[in-house]
Each structure stands twice: as C-alpha cells, then as structure tokens.
Amino acid sequence: MGKIPEDHPRYQSLVAREKLIAAGELVAGAGLIAHGRGEAFDYLLGEKTTGPAYSAINVAAELLCNARQPVISANGNSIALAGPAIAELAIAIPARVEVNLFHRSSARVSGLAALLREAGIEPLGERPDFHIPGLASERAKCSRAGIGDADVVLVPLEDGDRCQALVDLGKKVIAIDLNPLSRTARTAHVTIVDELTRCLPLLITAVNRKKPAGADFDNEKNLGKVMEQMRIVLKNMQTRTGEG
Amino acid sequence: MGKIPEDHPRYQSLVAREKLIAAGELVAGAGLIAHGRGEAFDYLLGEKTTGPAYSAINVAAELLCNARQPVISANGNSIALAGPAIAELAIAIPARVEVNLFHRSSARVSGLAALLREAGIEPLGERPDFHIPGLASERAKCSRAGIGDADVVLVPLEDGDRCQALVDLGKKVIAIDLNPLSRTARTAHVTIVDELTRCLPLLITAVNRKKPAGADFDNEKNLGKVMEQMRIVLKNMQTRTGEG
C-alpha cells in the first residue's frame, strides 16, 4: 500500500482496492467483483457523499439509536475495508456486530472475528444458533443473540436475497450500497448510497449528535435523487469529452 | 457453474463471474475488481450491444484485416472469459495473440498460454524480448515478434497506462472496455464499449464479412453516444423505481 502516492486524485479508491486484495482469503472472489461494481457506481457519484446520502445517514443514525436491539451485520469486504470504523460505530450506538457471510466458512468467520477483536469489540457469528427463513443453509446461519433477535439491522454491502429475507422477518433494515438500482438498495427501509469508508465516520458523528432526523424520509424518493445525481455526473463527463 | 439456471435473467453475467473466480490464480485480484466495474457499466448499457458498439466493431474489423501485423494482447481476464473466442478471432484475421499481463509472473503467463494452446493457437509472450517505453519493468515486457513490431493492437480489458504507451509508440490501438469514461477508452483510436464475450462473436463475423466500414468514424463522438445511452437507461430505471 506504501506505493500509492497520497496526492493521487483517486488515492482513497486505490487504498480501498489494495486493502481488499491484501485481505486474501478473508475476502471472497465474488467480494472483489462486488467491490468493482461499487467503484463504478461511486465514480458516477463523483466519489463524494451526496445530499441524499446525508439524509439517509441521519435517518439511519436515529433508527439505530432508538432501536431495542440494533445489530451491525459485517461481511468480509466491510471488515477488510473498515473493521475499526465498524467497531467504533458499534460502541457509539451501542450495538452488537455479527460476522455474517455469503460465502461462509469457519476459517473465514474466525479470521474476520479476530480482526474485529483487534479493533476492540467482541463480535457474534462464530457459533450460529439461528436460521433466517427463506435462505439456503450456509447463508441463513446467524446468532439468535444478534441478527436473530434484532429489531434494526445495519447491513453494509449486503446481498439482495438476505436483505429481502431480513425484511420478511420483520426487521428494519438499513443498507449501505453504492448501487442505487440493486435489490438491496430497493428492498431496505433506509439505503445509504455511499462508499463505506466515507460514510461510516459521518454515521458515527450523526449517532453521537443524536439529533432527530425528521419522520418524512421516503427511501424510494431518496434513491431517485441519487440516480438523478448520477445522470448529472454522466452528463458533465459527456460534455467534457467533447459531445454536448 | 452448473448451479446457475439458464433462464436466469442475468445468466450470461453470472456465468462470466463464475468463470473468472474458477480461474483462480490465473486471474489477479485486481482483475476481479476490474470485472466488477465492467459489470456495473454493462448494467447501464442494458447488458446488450449498442449501436455505437456495432459501429466500433465494424471499424475495428477493417483495421485488423488491413493491418501489416495485427496483434491481440490478451490478459488473465480476457483469456479466462473468452480464450476460445480470442483464438477464433486470431485465426480469422489472421493475427498473433500475445499474453501480456499487468500483474506479470512466469507462472501466470505460462498457465494462460496453455489455455490458448488448448484453444488451438500458439501464443507469444512467454519469452519477452522487447520493452514498451514509458512503463515500469514488469508491465513493459512483451515480444518483438508480437506487440513490439505490431502496427495494430487489439487490447481487450487493458490498463490506461499501457494503452497510452502503445499509442505513444505509434500503434493503432483498438480497445474493448465497458467503461466509456476510462483512460483506455479515451486514449484508444477505436473503442468498443461492450462486454467481451458478447462482442467477440460479432467482431469475428465482421472480420469474416470483410465489408468496408467507412472512413468517417470519430471515437470521441462514438463514446459520447454510448454515454447518452447510459443516461437514457438510468433515466428509465429511475422512472421505473417511482421517481419521474
């Protein structure tokens, strides 16, 4: 990672990519591909936190702070990219963190749990005792004391099937997903369309501030605003490359 | 790969993803991330070959057929996704294929060359004897009998630096890249913005047909048309999700 110059215009993006590759077996091959999809959508956001993302962050902070049992579901990508920030957010809320993987193996769960312990929290997920109905066995495994009994679940970088299954279970789901068109983005109750390492500090600040976000948030409308931003970025790039 | 149902609406995309992951060490981690970026842009193309892509394919076919020494530069992603189609294209033109990698190692070059041999051609690239000026050592290595002496180079899924270096060397460069905003897309003389496995059969057909494509092709204008298509797709998706 030392090779990327800090003044590179896309420094943060390149550091994130290096972190994921350096995580080796802890991040699944499909996780690297998913990260690439996110990079492309972030490019269309101008690689910055948009107004609609700030709105969603504030609503998410309020939901997490008012929850009976808030849980952060963490996977390989999210821990490799932002383990310490996830731990900091969990302490600020306070919430439990559960390691929950699409491509589950005991070795990956333990390795990722160890990274969270290094970041100062004791995660759930190593001894699953609850199944999310409607999902194939490995992806369904989780902890009753975590996702099983949660009323609000924050799912950074989730898969669409599991997001839907959690909603079907009656959970309030907050997603962090750079693709405003994904099933996760459209299924969650609150979708933060922003890059994970960029929005977690903002979410932590919002949690610490504990300011009411207002009750008139409409996720579908908010996603529409994000797509409008992407169209404007694409239009500006198109103009810059010479085609008006 | 047997697990993906053929009637899945995104079957081709899922098969491509599985092929890359199955290639293991032959595809670099960064290659998986790059594939993900391509998936996102392809989504914005509606996952189909657009009019501007057909125009670029016809111009590319003419350039390749009229070249003194056309060379196809193949990397891990392109061989894992489309080794047999690359071989078929090389035979149709005819052109040499050179294995040329960003993350070069002897083992990866040999493994990828073996896949091309299985597909029926004898590739270059295992014994580099030429350096592309202006690139760091490993990325610069190539064969004099291939890229070194080529007048026209087809670079599917290339990196921006090398595309620029090939243009600086005086080569005519044809790129296949799903991101119309990338440096590769904007630096190449002819950019086919299309998914590799979808456009190679079309390129082979165009090569076999040998129909003149017309001399009025403007790559920058063609990229502008692609971006316009993406904006329309985004607009349609936005409307469908409820925000007009």
Characterization of the model:
The structure is a homodimer of 244-residue chains. Chain A is an alpha/beta fold and 244 residues long. Chain A has one domain (51-228): Rossmann fold (3-Layer(aba) Sandwich), CATH 3.40.50. The first copy, chain A, has eleven helices and seven strands. Chain A is globular. The model of chain A has no long low-confidence stretch (mean pLDDT 90). Chain A binds chain B through residues 17, 20-21, 29-30, 32-41, 43, 179, 181, 186, 220-221, 223-225, 227-228, 230-231, 234-235, 237-238, 241-243, and chain B through 17, 20-21, 29-30, 32-41, 43, 179, 181, 186, 220-221, 223-225, 227-228, 230-231, 234-235, 237-238, 241-243.
Oligomer: homodimer
CATH superfamily of chain A: Phosphopantoate/pantothenate synthetase
Helix vs. strand class of chain A:
alpha/beta
Total number of domains of chain A: 1
Biggest interface, chains and residue tallies: A-B, 35 and 35 residues
What's the β-strand tally of chain A? 7
Which strand order do you get reading across the main beta sheet of chain A? 2-1-5-6-7
Quote the average pLDDT of chain A: 90
**Approximate helicity band of chain A:** 40-55%
Q: The CATH topology of chain A is what?
A: Rossmann fold
